[in-house]
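Follow-up to my earlier ticket, as requested here are the two runs.
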Amino acid sequence: MLRVWAALAVSPVLLVVIALAVAAGSGSGDLWPHLLRFVLPQAVWETLLLLGGIGLFTVAAGTGTAWLVTCHRFPLRDLLSWALLLPLALPTYVAAYAWLDVMHPAGPVQMALRGALGLTDPRAIPLPEIRSLGGCVLVMGLVLYPYVYMAARVAFLTQGREVLRAGQAAGAGGLALFLRIGLPLARPAIAAGAALALMEALNDVGASEFLGVRSLTVSVYVTWITRSSLPGAAQIALLLLLLVLALLLLERWGRRHAAHAVAGAGSPELTPLAGLAGLSACLVCALPVLLGFGVPAGYLAWAAGHRLAAFGLPPDLWRWMANSALLAAAACAVALPLALLLAFTARRDGSGRKPGSALLKLSMLGYALPGGVAAVGVIIALGWLDSLTAGLGALAPPLLSGSAVAVVAAYVIRFLAIPAGGLEAAYARLPREVDWSARSLGSADLRLLLRVHLPLLLPAAGGATLLLFLDAMKELPATLMLRPMNMETLATALYAEASRGTYEEGAVAALALAVIGLPPILVLMAAGRRAERRAATPRVTPGGVLAPALPTR
């Protein structure tokens, strides 16, 4: 019976994909030839160029900075090694919103340059246009490179000093050591980090639209909202889902030699960089932090302060925050029990290819769905349920697809992987002897879960709930497409202000979203510091051999 409930818990993820396939297969009438001729070629081409540019940027920036801070000593190295994570605190659309205003002809950069040069014509300085494909690649790459940085840094830390010493003894040094030893061993981790960055890029709708890129995700939104064609949006969403699957397969291919990565005795020795080399390394690592977090966050703080001094808080700010918090809290209240049920079922079934483990893995597939794709699937599935209740003569009108239920459902489907993964990891650290002892004392499944497991899982469940809550607060595509009429959240309010071009009005909401993103990054930074200390501290094995305490991600 427990497996049946677990299957029901994971069924919404499958229902969304089935709904997309059915709606896309039903056809969009005369719209499909128009989409095929005028919309999809440009959308697919710009999406591929966007992904290619972001992929190259994040791999270069993330891997290069990870190698510098892991294997070299230079000024501000300790500070920068964790400051490089800060851009993750900003949603991509918040960074794009800030950079648009910073680089605007009436913005601080161009006004300062014209003032310094004594110019008055706003068009006198032909700076590169930020509203372009290149600008979108740069802005999103500056926010997403930490995914590659984190993965690459862990890989370099766990290679150990003995592997790098062996390379140096063979004549490799400097760039050759990185290219011939460090990079090949870290390739699986780099591929995983790049795949995460690219899936985040596919999920984006705000930054792409703000910066003038007509991606597939933007096309889904425009086809649904502007053309009022749900089947047409489903057809584009299904194509977007196929692109996500292709990315996952590419990531698996990139990790096909994952077993070749090894752990040596302790973290790598730091090579000192002095003079110009040390200054250059410091600048290379500081630049992504400055451009990815410092400039946009600093500008948002300045713009918000200017707005508050002139007009006070936006009158609807508290309503936006309350709506965001209520939707996110509702998603947590639904997702956490479902994740606990799935993790407990997998625990009871044991490891291996058993139904419980398979259902747990299946529940995590929702995280790979871009928010726009999940939104289209949810609205179709809830439309079916509305039709069913109307056909059965239910007293309540069919309002599921036009209510906050749709938003919460999309949040749960997208972010169920966060508590499910966190609880799975917590269960992996919980000895099986705990279960055996409880069973020997007569504890059934429910008693075992509530009286024994749950108290031990509370720290992991609390951390996962916090991450889910914050991610849901910042989610834009699904909220934008599913929210009820006249319901605004922080994310949708910021989108509305940017669409109207009233950037200063949205600065307070943008700053609030930036602050919301900071707690998990600070926790991650603290965990990373502890992991690096463990990696640098040798331990003695039972045989008397020194071995490293390997860091965990």
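Run two:
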Amino acid sequence: MNSGALPEAPDSKGFAVAIYLVAFVTGAIVMSFEMLGSRYLAPAFGAGIYTWASLISTVLAALCAGYFLGGFVADRFPSPAILAATVAIGSIWMLLLPAFSDEVVQFFAFQIDDIKTGSLAAAMAIMLFPVTFLGMYSPFAIRLLIESKHNAGAVSGTVYGISTAGSILGTLVTTFVLIPLIGTRAITVSLGIAGLLGCALLLATAPRRRLGVVAALLASQLAMPPPARAEDLFDSQIRQTMLARKDGRIAHLETVYNDIFVTKEASLLSLSFQWKGWRFYQSQANLADGDDLPMPYSRTLSIAAIYPQDIRRVLVLGLGAGSIAVYLHRFVPDAAIDAVELDPGVIEVARKYFGLRETGNFRLIPGDARMFLNRHPEPYDIIIVDAFTGSYIPFHLMTKEFYQLLRSRLSPHGVAAFNFLSAKDVFESNVRTVAVAFDNAIDLFRSDEGNGESNAIVIARLDPSSDAETLQKAAAAQARYKFRFDVAKLVADQRMPLPKDLRGKVLTDDFAAADVLDARSRSYRREK
């Protein structure tokens, strides 16, 4: 480090070191808080690109305002006390945030229908204020450190370099270590405490020793607690046209959420998502046979139909190509089916290439699954959750709070069916979390997808059902609906025993390390 970066007065060297150290801390706090922002917003607005754009824009706007304001105030009041106060104000906000964040975010979620505007407003409400004050730190610190124009460049570069190093560490530690370890709210409180400790350090090392009393008052904040067959759902003409196409890639569409590919092999039309060459099949349709369900997991999901006494309303969260909705509609034609899909591009592909269309009993609804449930209290007899963004289930659709919300939207004898990947860590956490939300009233079914891959279907019930009763219900449902794939046989062949000891962690909106757990034990196939 250039020695010219430090004031030469002997009694101020310790203060200069403290300023650089706190620059590192504030840089870490800002980026850590930005990463946490997605955890605050996702339960209401989803974890898609609009949410991240809102968060990034808010942080940049706050830093922009902080840089201007910090420089302005520093030139007029170059006081260590005011520098410490800027850190203290932002830190105290973070200590208090967990006490009111949910109410603020939900307010904007319910008041603003547009997800882009709503997520931006919510991000501004919870993040703009503290990050602005933390953003004041660097220009203010530079003003206090500069002795003359000869060391201005070295001081500025050192402050911003150290702050940026803190930002890098804050991003990595928060994402890789803290979120899986202790949860969102605990991390937020820890950031507030770290900021107040930095504030106390500044005051304790400032040349004006009379600030020790102020430091004691600010440090005392550390003790503060945190607050009959109906109309088909597909256009047969479109499917006939697709059937006549040559095998291979049919279409490629890049959306804000996914990289979508449509491919054809013989009579099978497939929709897949791809990421860095890895291929994730989401849905398939047999163009020559409308009653077929080519993907084994979707057949297993149809087991959900055996539990309700009558199937009047069905909700499908995650559309894909619409295969599950089409299948249920063909065999339970009187049921009204709503399909909610986050990515408008997926809906476009399902319409254009798979011939999916709305009817009097079938609605296509663009939007986030959790937002839809929050805004629509009407009950459903069956809710199917098959929602993936790329290769992952969004974390806010795998928490206890989400499952409890979903349970509240079931009719008195309703069931929820979940498609989970069988990767050990995340699967055990998923099953345990569903079991907690549904008082252990769950059934597990295996689905072998081929190529060594497998899914697990979890059925969560409101009514008790023994193994024998479940088999009886399956036989009765098969006789009543005459499904193409015999649900009685599926139940008998694919039933899995419930684990005696679920070792996974209960996932919550505050502690949802699902995306980290899901990254373990994954197997992919690279597109050729």
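The only thing I checked on run two: Residues 32 and 172 are 8 Å apart (CA to CA). Let me know what else you need.
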